[in-house]
């Protein structure tokens, strides 16, 4: 099955689950990192120390690596930006297939961890001190990097989901932030009746948040354990998932939400114009929107954030979209040293503070989540709202973790097609999920899985 999975990772490389959650690119070469100090994007000054190569793309990685190398005499990091998200994954996949050319440590979006761990491309960190840092993270964040008893990455950041909304639109039309999805629909109906903007958007090109909303409703689309990697359970068309997809299909059908692809100039322009009353997104979204020009000029002071509406308010559920980890690759010649780097590289106070104050990351390290500076931070984008304390920290702490698809972008590409069919009026949500279930079962069988 390992060889068959080699073709399953980058089958639709342009359709990324967490497109904006991975942040922007930064300096650094495009060539594979090596232990040769001359090839590193940040100079290594302690030339007597052993070197660990790292691929990572967050905008502040230069600062992070400088902090690490300055504070460590026992090991130095040779960092390279080998591409952002899909570009890096394609290069990493080539190295995995060839059995050579991979870095010692690689940044991965959280939902890509199972794709590479099932190819035996990542090291189980339980034998290299992972338990020593487990307490630095919430249970959900740790569950995301675990499979059975194995741990395949060290969390950096996450994307607890919430509902951003336009205060100007809500005030103009007398809308109160909805706390349930029923209330969300009712608000959309009120906006439409009053000639107001769309309540939100249901994009086909980013299916990951839709999966999260399915999980919020109690769905468990994927079940597997890396200790028994040939066994897989797929339950994409459960009643819980169908309720969610039929709900959004109904919003589209009734003209209450749009169907614009997100992370495009058209979508951003619409968000700035106030074409959408809400943006269902994650804690990294303010940084993304700020970088795209939202919240400035005439758009300043128009945004606030509220907890994600619930399917069952008596049993609230927090979900996550995005975030990244540092994983040790199986090609690392000294996995113990590489594991030390994975655990310590983006974990010092200076780097974490730089990450969240620059809106590069929403950190998952408890040292930040419990710090008064982070808790009481008044968000400039949200007009002084204490968004961390009010919304994002409670969501992060309540998150219980997910089991992600082992098929990476292949699954997301197929789900994108199904959502596009919903938005075109060609299928109901339930029909789309029945088709998706059949397609993924067939694909899993082709990849050598035994379906339970």
What key phrases describe this protein's structure?
452 residues, alpha/beta, D-Maltodextrin-Binding Protein, domain 2, seven-stranded mixed sheet, three-stranded mixed sheet, 14 strands, disordered N terminus
Mean pLDDT: 91
Fold-level CATH name of the largest domain: D-Maltodextrin-Binding Protein, domain 2
Radius of gyration: 22 Å
Total E-strand runs: 14
So, CATH architecture of the largest domain?
3-Layer(aba) Sandwich
Helix and strand composition category: alpha/beta
What CATH first level of the largest domain would be assigned? Alpha Beta
Compute the number of structural domains. Answer: 2
Fraction of residues in H or I helices: 25-40%
Keywords: Signal, Sugar transport, Transport
Signal peptide: 1-20
Pfam families: SBP_bac_8
InterPro entries: Bact_solute-bd_prot1, SBP
Structure, explained:
The chain contains 19 helices and 14 strands. With 452 residues, the protein is α/β, with parallel strands linked by helices. Strands 1, 2, 3, 6, 11, 12 and 13 form a seven-stranded mixed sheet that branches. A hairpin with a 7-residue loop joins strand 8 and strand 9 (231-234). Helix 10 packs across helix 19 and helix 18 (409-423) runs antiparallel to helix 19. The protein starts with a helix and ends with a strand.
SSE blueprint and pairings:
Elements: H1 2-5, E1 51-55, H2 61-71, E2 76-80, H3 86-98, E3 105-109, H4 113-117, H5 130-134, H6 139-144, E4 146-147, E5 150-151, E6 154-166, H7 167-173, H8 181-193, E7 200-201, H9 208-216, E8 222-223, E9 231-234, H10 239-253, E10 257-258, H11 265-273, E11 278-282, H12 285-291, E12 303-307, E13 320-328, H13 335-344, H14 349-357, H15 366-369, H16 372-375, H17 387-398, H18 409-423, H19 429-446, E14 450-451
Helix pairs in contact: 9-10, 10-19, 18-19
């Amino acid at each position: 099955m390992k060889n068959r999975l080699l073709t399953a990772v980058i089958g639709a490389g342009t359709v990324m689950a967490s497109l904006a959650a991975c942040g922007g690119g930064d300096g650094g070469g495009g060539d594979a990192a090596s232990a040769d100090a001359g090839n590193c994007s940040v100079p290594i000054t302690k030339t007597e120390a052993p070197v660990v190569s790292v691929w990572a793309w967050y905008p502040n990685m230069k600062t992070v690596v400088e902090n690490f190398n300055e504070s460590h005499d026992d090991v130095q990091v040779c960092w390279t930006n080998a591409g952002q998200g899909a570009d890096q994954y394609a290069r990493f996949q080539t190295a995995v297939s060839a059995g050579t050319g991979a870095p010692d440590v690689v940044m991965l979006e959280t939902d890509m961890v199972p794709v590479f761990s099932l190819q035996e491309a990542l090291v189980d960190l339980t034998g290299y001190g992972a338990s020593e840092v487990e307490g630095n993270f919430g249970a959900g964040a740790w569950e995301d990097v675990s499979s059975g008893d194995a741990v395949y990455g060290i969390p950096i950041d996450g994307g607890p989901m919430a509902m951003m909304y336009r205060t100007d639109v809500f005030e103009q039309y007398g809308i109160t932030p909805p706390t349930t999805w029923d209330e969300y629909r009712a608000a959309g109906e009120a906006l439409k009746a009053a000639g107001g903007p769309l309540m939100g958007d249901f994009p086909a090109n980013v299916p990951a948040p839709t999966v999260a909303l399915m999980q919020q409703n109690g769905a468990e689309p994927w079940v597997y354990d890396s200790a028994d990697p040939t066994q897989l359970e797929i339950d994409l068309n459960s009643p819980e998932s169908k309720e969610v997809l039929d709900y959004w299909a109904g919003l589209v059908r009734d003209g209450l939400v749009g169907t614009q692809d997100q992370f495009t100039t058209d979508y951003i322009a619409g968000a700035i114009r106030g074409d959408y009353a809400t943006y269902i997104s994650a804690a990294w979204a303010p940084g993304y929107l700020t970088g795209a020009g939202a919240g400035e000029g005439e758009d300043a002071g128009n945004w606030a954030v509220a907890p994600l509406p619930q399917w069952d308010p008596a049993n609230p559920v927090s979900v996550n979209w995005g975030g990244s980890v540092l994983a040790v690759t199986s090609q690392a010649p000294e996995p113990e040293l590489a594991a030390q780097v994975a655990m310590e590289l983006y974990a010092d106070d200076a780097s974490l503070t730089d990450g969240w104050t620059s809106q590069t990351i929403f950190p998952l390290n408890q040292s930040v989540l419990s710090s008064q500076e982070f808790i009481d931070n008044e968000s400039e984008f949200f007009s002084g709202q204490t968004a961390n304390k009010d919304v994002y920290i409670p969501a992060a702490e309540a998150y219980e973790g997910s089991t992600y698809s082992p098929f990476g972008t292949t699954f997301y590409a197929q789900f994108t097609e199904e959502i596009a069919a919903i938005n075109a009026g060609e299928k109901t949500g339930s029909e789309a999920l029945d088709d998706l279930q059949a397609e993924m079962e067939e694909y899993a069988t082709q990849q050598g899985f035994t379906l339970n």
